[in-house]
Design a protein that fits this description.
Layout (H helix, E strand, L loop, with lengths): L1 E2 L2 E7 L5 E7 L2 E4 L18 H9 L5 E2 L6 H11 L10 H18 L4 H5 L8 E8 L15 E5 L5 H19 L16 H8 L6 E5 L6 E2 L2 E3 L4 E2 L1 H15 L3 E3 L7 H5 L6 E4 L7 H9 L5 E4 L1 H4 L2 H13 L3 E5 L9 H8 L4 E3 L5 H16 L2
Parallel strand pairs: 6-16, 8-12, 12-13, 13-14, 14-15, 15-16
Antiparallel strand pairs: 1-5, 2-3, 3-4, 6-7, 7-8, 9-10, 10-11
């Protein structure tokens, strides 16, 4: 495929904040934006969003790409042109949107689905992970909110479509129980209950497993985890996390300790999923350290947090080799681009974290339902 035209522009995400959209041969792709960012994730842009938009619009064309692996050519071109040590220094959001648009154009050129140009043999569908009740940084605009950032539903039905229905039904039930219509940045229900009161409610739901994104780095300072009603040191936090796993049979526990504490993560009971997000930041070097120290048995993978889809593919391979479960994830500031669903299927992710409600989340879920239907 010859890339004949590349264009970039600024659009607004679901938080009405600016992000980047790139068009390649009239195929558009956009990047989401995170609010809760790990200290070690790749910067979203090089100098600024405006800079990235301007330089993408000045990229010299045409050039050729014929397969997913040819993304390495694009990265080499960018690295050389802008004198970078690594193509990701171009900016994770900008590089991701550019590569995603290229793959969409390649798919159209070859009359294939996006997932097919990456992995035409994909068969397994991911299990959805839905943020049902919100807290932490995602709910900062509300005066009263839980400390933990996300309270999650993980269904366990036979098909992806049935998993989505189960998740959405429980979301509706929670809306009635909490008697609220308020939602946060991710469409998660907003309430003033404390963390354990919410876990008690979730534990009584039917046909679902439950989890939390603690996002502990967001309330960790000077060696102390600062809750609204208590302060815990490292050992006390480890004990508290392990007690929550046992008391509520948590299936999913994300970032239970601060983003530098690889050793502390290793002391969390691996009864089910212990997940690195801020700890690993979709970064190969930090993933390898987490594996070596036995910190995690699951990992959040955010394509726009890394930038390079070529490297994201490597991360999935490393995780598979070391039996680390993979959870491909949206961001709090989303767009209507549904490509995340195709990447989840193509890379054979174990789970996809998209949220449950609002059009920005539902478009990813509906895309996977459509893929599943097309293969029956």
């Amino acid at each position: 495929m010859i890339i004949k035209e590349v264009r970039a522009r600024i659009i607004k995400d679901s938080r009405n904040e600016p992000t980047i959209e790139v068009s390649v041969n009239n195929q558009k792709a956009s990047s989401p934006s995170g609010k809760s960012k790990g200290k070690h994730e790749t910067p979203s842009y090089n100098f600024s969003l405006d800079w990235n938009v301007n330089v993408i619009n000045k990229l010299k064309i045409p050039f050729e790409i014929n397969s997913f692996n040819d993304l390495s050519k694009i990265e080499s071109l960018i690295k050389k042109k802008f004198n970078l040590k690594d193509a990701k220094q171009f900016g994770a959001n900008a590089l991701f949107a550019l590569e995603s648009a290229i793959l969409k154009a390649l798919a159209k050129e070859n009359k294939k689905e996006l997932w097919q140009v990456i992995n035409p043999n994909a068969k397994k569908f991911p299990i959805p992970v839905g943020n049902a009740i919100g807290g932490g940084l995602h709910s900062a605009k509300f005066k009263k909110h839980p400390v933990f950032q996300e309270f999650l539903l993980i269904p366990n039905e036979k098909s992806f479509k049935d998993n989505v229905k189960s998740m959405q039904d429980n979301y509706k039930t929670l809306k009635l129980i909490l008697n609220t219509k308020q939602v946060n940045d991710e469409g998660a229900l907003q309430c003033s209950l404390n963390d354990e009161e919410i876990l008690e409610i979730l534990s009584n739901l039917t046909n679902t497993r439950i989890g939390i994104d603690v996002a502990s780095s967001s309330f960790f300072k000077n060696g102390i985890y600062n809750y609204k009603d208590k302060q815990l040191d490292r050992e006390a936090q480890i004990h508290y996390m392990n007690s929550l796993i046992n008391d509520y049979d948590l299936f999913y526990l994300e970032d239970p300790l601060n983003e530098e504490d690889f050793l502390g993560f290793s002391k969390i009971v691996k009864k089910h999923l212990i997940i690195g997000d801020d700890l690993t930041t979709t970064n190969i070097r930090r993933l390898k350290k987490a594996i070596k120290m036995k910190s995690i048995n699951a990992m959040i993978i955010k394509p726009n947090q890394n930038g390079s889809l070529f490297e994201v593919a490597k991360i999935f391979k490393i995780c598979k080799k070391h039996k680390i479960k993979t959870i491909i994830s949206h961001r709090s500031g989303e767009t209507l681009d549904n490509a995340l669903a195709d990447y989840a299927f193509a890379f054979q992710a174990d789970f996809i974290k998209t949220g449950i409600a609002t059009k920005w989340r539902e478009v990813k879920l509906n895309r996977l339902i459509d893929i599943e239907k097309s293969l029956k």
